[in-house]
Give the backbone structure.
Amino acid sequence: MLNLAILISGRGSNMENIVKSIKKNKIPVNPVVVISNKSDAKGLEIAKKLGVKTEIIESNGLKGGNWEYDSKLVAALEKYKVTPQNGLVCLAGFMRIMSPEFIKYYKGRILNIHPAILPSFPGLHSQKQALDYGVKYTGCTVHFVDEGIDTGPIILQSIVKVKDNDTEESLSKRILKQEHKIYPKAVKMFAKGKIKISGRKTVTS
Ligand code: GRF
């Protein structure tokens, strides 16, 4: 069975939702570890309550995209048998850029959720970017992680209508609901071998 690691930095609602969905819908995935780069990440307690092992690998000022940090991640992931053969790494609010070495190691096995319809509004504060731009629709995207920032092949997207009176908070809340729908769905599709990467695209069967 696929061994899943979920990487978080904070609240962990996507992580919680993925783990619960795996159990509820009998998705053939084993959530073996939740790793945080912050010791005070709220999601760590949630993971423990759900019976998932946790690890803290503090990033302590180490810049993102750095192999010095990511090699520690790989060591932890290997300890939990999250391998390039049978592993899946889900980034869920993990506030670090992955190094090229890490991406190469787990090629085609790293997913991320982004709170906008990519390629619009990559990077940080996507909900605010969408509001400031004045778009009428935004949403969220599950995609493979490649060397760019939020540029990897797209797996699933969900649209959210922007209301005239939306604040960053109200919009983020509605987007998050959609995130919770599409991320477990993408994990299930991956686990069942239904996603093929073809250049910039994914083809699903
Ligand atoms: C989500 O909005 C996700 O799209 C973004 O970071 C946030 C993480 O939230 N990448 P949570 O920790 O899953 O609650």
